[in-house]
Amino acid sequence: MIRPPCLPPLRDPAMSHPHDANRRHWDEVTAIHRDSAFYKVDAFLAGHCTVGPVEREGLSPLLRKNLLHLQCHFGLDTLSLLRLGASRVTGVDISGAAIREASALAEKLKLGAWADFVEADVLDLDLKSRFERIFTSHGAINWLSDIEAWGRVVARHLAQDGVFYMMEAHPFGLAMDLETSGRLYQRFDYFHKDEPMALDGVPDYAVPDYLPKEPGIGWAWTIADIMAALEKAGLRVFEFREYPFAAWEALPGMTAEAGGYYWRRHEGPDLPLLFSLKARHAA
């Protein structure tokens, strides 16, 4: 676990911050995720790549690129990207439990010399380094209270000729849920509100019969919010795509298929469940 001296000091634990609840949430679920069938840690240790084919294409070319992975959880994707040819990877996560697990995995695989894991709130991050690839993915943005601060962090760390790539849960899909009758309805806000959403009663995505004791809180960010944050920070979005599949069982009854993505096999219209974009520094 690394906490570089260039990072701001950790906040006084007596002082409350919106992200404190989310730190507790991820500290709680890290061991549950590590041991779950969803994450397939044993297969990963045996060589399985946890990064899907769409993300691999989006990050290409990756060979000999240094990469920053924001909100990396316990490092499976980060280390998979190292195996795929990145010259060095740095994973950042708010959860100390997740960073400890990631560091342990790196050492177990004898990859520690090329992988750094940093415990930090991503909105406070300043590593004093630039990266040729920056990556963020599934279920990350909705845990952040300030999307413009996030955009500045991306721009601060992106090399002048680098590419930022994200593949995220689509905000429209995140707002929806299924009634027991199978009818879709809107459960959460689509547009951003300053007041966070309490995630009480939302099952864990990796272990659906587990309700976290520390559920955390979330914020809705539209695609327009995300693009505006990147552009305000001096980046230019040059590619945008949407997908009718998810990275986990986002709605009841979805099934995992080729590439590890989850599909709805049903009668009726499709939903946008993931989106991806690429950005670089404006000329």
TrEMBL record:
Q: Which CDD domains match?
A: AdoMet_MTases
Q: Which domain of life is it from?
A: Bacteria
Pfam families per the record? Methyltransf_25
Residue segments, region Disordered: 1-21
| Domain (Methyltransferase) ranges | 68-162
- Which residues are listed as membrane-spanning? none
Residue spans of biased composition, Pro residues class: 1-11
Protein's recorded name = Methyltransferase domain-containing protein
Native species of this protein? Zavarzinia compransoris
